[in-house]
Amino acid sequence: METNPTVAINISDDLYGLSNTKSDPRDLPEPDVHIVTCDALRIPAHSSILASVSPVLENIIDRPRKHRSSERVIPITGVPYDAVLAFVRFLYSSRCTEEHMEKYGIHLLALSHVYLVPQLKHRCTKELGQRLTIENVVDVLQLAKMCDAADLYLKCLKLVANHFKAVENTEGWKFLQDHDPWLELDILQFIDETELRKRKTRRLREEQRLYLQLSEAMECLEHICKEGCTSVGPYDMEPGHKRSPCSKFSTCQGLQMLIQHFASCKRRVNGGCLRCKRMWQLLRLHSSMCDEPDSCRVPLCRQFKLKMQQEKKKDDARWKLLVRKVVSAKTISSLSLPKRKREEELGETRSSHGIRSFRL
């Protein structure tokens, strides 16, 4: 197109986006304001419509003119003419085509922010978030920060953090390093914080898994010492070799093997066996959690409690914390009992087909 400051675009239904609406363009008065673009082209418009949609345009329109006879002109520069035209269409019809959003989404976001058009800003933020790529994410990130688009800004940061190696090789990132080191620092800090959160989450999950395993071990220990399982049972009952496996067989089997080792190990007296130490710790943990030591069938439960009372010693803070965590895990496990029952039924079905897991 030729750049001529006297050229004005003809008024048409398509210009104002009214071609597919119930509004009749013939009802509109003559345009009383012109929008001048960076190409020096002029778009005729109606001041009443612009002012009703954008408070910024309303202030520009209401500014006093030097001469009453001078025409009203609103300069919108810095973006392509077609982007300004799409912006004006939205002001008239509150609609924006997918094609315009794909081509001029970044420009429309900037215009919607500058001229305070929240409906268009929301649309642009949503559309740009769906069109993010490795190549454009840095540009969109910079614009989202300037336009206070918090949701889009966070989405861009997450994409950069998840694909940093690829983003680091783009021209946008190189430009950012040269011209906006503060934003680069914000991005790197976000990546560090994200990694810290991931590591913390993994650590908490591992800890929770350990507490659940200990809670399950406590249940199995009580079950073995009270009812007996496949190979280990109470001292006053016959060995239960014919008993069928329990619902927690993988844990129960490992605990039975540990008990058998504990009963026959020659080094446990001198504290030289790691497996025996583990068994002592499990027995102590049970005693710390047990509410009925006088009637409990687990070995040494009452003795552990009496020893603590006689020595008048309190458990150290770390041990108390461990007990609380295991008790908490047991409570959480009991709350999810219906789900566990379904899983156990599924496990029994698998066992009937010869599928079984073992864990020591």
TrEMBL record:
Pathway: Protein modification; protein ubiquitination. GO terms for biological process: regulation of DNA-templated transcription; response to hormone; response to hydrogen peroxide; response to salicylic acid. Residues 341-351 have a biased composition (Basic and acidic residues). It comes from Prunus yedoensis var. nudiflora. Residues 340-360 are annotated as: Disordered. SUPFAM superfamilies: POZ domain (SSF54695), TAZ domain (SSF57933). Residues 31-100 form the BTB domain. This is BTB domain-containing protein. SMART domains: BTB, ZnF_TAZ. The keyword Zinc-finger applies. GO terms for cellular component: nucleus. InterPro entries: BT1/2/3/4/5, BTB/POZ_dom, SKP1/BTB/POZ_sf, TAZ_dom_sf, Znf_TAZ. Gene3D superfamilies: 1.25.40.420, Potassium Channel Kv1.1, Chain A, TAZ domain. The keyword Repressor does not apply. GO terms for molecular function: calmodulin binding; zinc ion binding. Keywords: Metal-binding, Ubl conjugation pathway, Zinc, Zinc-finger.
